[in-house]
């Protein structure tokens, strides 16, 4: 009951921090999608390059988020952005690359060869086949990668509160520093609920983008 009263008393702040959190993750994953999807498509041309790129992206994901923030502070301080918004977005952008690149690469590679041949048979150029056949068929798997990146990085962004990025992680960091379990629990629950809500919202988008006639993948990625 005390937790509910605390949340209601700080509802305006909770809403503001939630919007900050969504904004941070949205910008980072949006940029990651704009870069990761073309990279995933490009590496389908060479298995050796694909292995190298996916291995590099896997290494980045293994770096603890707090360590990555620590690395970026002195580097980005050179341009006056050692803490706050910029390092938080860059970190989440890097963590988002693996699921997006991997799912794009897998989806394009797994397009039915018969469909490629049919498109080639009616005179489509490689770019037309990619744009009109391969990418539409790959959209459900690509969106599953985006969903994975978003859910993963909603949690990562909570840690970014320690470098002044804002968001719901502010409740958690203050709860720890002030020994206040109310702030800690409210922040943790809010982050978890946000991840669930956003995941289901993106699942709806994934279903809407799936071409008619294809089996619609509904299981969470």
Give a brief outline of the structure.
The protein has helices at residues 2-9, 11-42, 47-62, 65-77, 85-109, 113-121, 126-159, 169-177, 181-209. It has 221 residues and is mainly α.
Specify the biggest β-sheet.
none
Give me the count of strands. Answer: 0
Number of helices: 9
Rounded average pLDDT: 87
**What is the multimeric organization of the chains shown?**
single chain
Radius of gyration: 20 Å
Structural class: mainly alpha
Fraction in beta strands? under 5%
Note the overall shape: elongated
Q: What is the element string, with H for helices and E for strands? A: HHHHHHHHH
- How far is the N terminus from the C terminus? 34 Å
Please give the share of residues in helix. over 70%
Low-confidence stretches: 216-221
How is this structure best described in words?
There is one protein chain. With 221 residues, the chain is mainly alpha-helical. Helices cover 79% and strands 0% of the residues. It has nine helices and no strands. It has helices spanning 2-9, 11-42, 47-62, 65-77, 85-109, 113-121, 126-159, 169-177, 181-209. Helix 2 runs antiparallel to helix 7 and helix 4 (65-77) packs across helix 5 (85-109). The radius of gyration is 20 Å and the shape is elongated. Mean pLDDT is 87; it is low at 216-221.
């Amino acid at each position: 009951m005390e937790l509910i009263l605390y949340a209601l008393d700080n509802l305006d702040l909770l809403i503001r921090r939630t919007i900050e959190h969504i904004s941070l993750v949205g910008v980072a994953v949006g940029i990651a999608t704009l870069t990761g999807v073309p990279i995933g498509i490009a590496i389908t041309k060479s298995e050796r390059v694909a292995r190298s790129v996916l291995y590099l992206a896997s290494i980045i994901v293994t770096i603890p988020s707090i360590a990555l923030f620590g690395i970026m502070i002195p580097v980005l301080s050179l341009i006056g952005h050692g803490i706050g918004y910029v390092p938080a977005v860059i970190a989440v952008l890097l963590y988002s690359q693996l699921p997006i690149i991997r799912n794009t690469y897998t989806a394009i590679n797994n397009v039915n060869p018969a469909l490629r041949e049919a498109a080639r048979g009616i005179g489509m150029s490689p770019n037309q086949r990619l744009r009109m056949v391969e990418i539409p068929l790959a959209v459900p798997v690509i969106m599953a990668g985006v969903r994975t990146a978003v859910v993963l990085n909603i949690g990562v962004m909570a840690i970014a509160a320690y470098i002044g990025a804002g968001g719901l992680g502010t409740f958690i960091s203050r709860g720890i520093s002030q020994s206040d379990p109310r702030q800690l629990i409210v922040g943790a629950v809010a982050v978890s609920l946000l991840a669930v809500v956003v995941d289901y919202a993106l699942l709806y988008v994934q279903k809407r983008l799936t071409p008619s006639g294809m089996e619609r993948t509904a299981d969470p990625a």
